[in-house]
Amino acid sequence: MGAKITRGIKQMVAEANAEIETISAQQAIKLKDDPNAVIVDLRDIRELTRDGRVPGAFHAPRGMLEFWVDPESPYYKEIFGSGKKFVFFCAGGMRSALAAQTVQRMGLAPVCHIEGGFRAWKEAGGPVEAPPADAAKK
Fold it and tell me: For residue 65, what are the contacts with CB-CB under 8 A and spacing of at least 6?
């Protein structure tokens, strides 16, 4: 039998949401063209290929985020030293809540995440670049 989980994902996401700023998709859409904000897409490349992208969003795969944020890391990305506000999103808002909490704890500020993620962005009428036509064949 496997290990007993003592803190499940629902609890972890609730704890993250209690620590971070959460914004609506409508608020995020208004920040899309703000030169002092960076919209950060945490989704896996397969999700981007399948579902499309937010135009102009910076893609930072969730698995690399901490390494890209830390200036001491060999994988550091200078965009994270820009001093801009970082608006994280994933498909539905759970990974982005955990990511925003983690980078905030690392000292990155200001950060927030989009409640409902990419799904909410699309439902709110946010612009989306369609996936490539041949993506359905893959």
Answer: 42, 99, 102, 103
The two structure tokens encoding residue 90:
């994933």
Write down the pTM of the prediction: 0.92
* Res 46: pLDDT: 95
CB within 8 Å of 92: residues ≥ 6 apart: 116, 117, 118, 119
Q: What is the CATH number of the domain that holds 25?
A: 3.40.250.10
Question: Which structural domain, as residue segments, surrounds residue 106?
Answer: 9-128
The verdict on residue 137 lying in a domain is: no
Convert the pLDDT of each residue in 49-68 to its tens digit: 999 999 999 999 999 999 99
Tell me if 136 is assigned to some domain: no
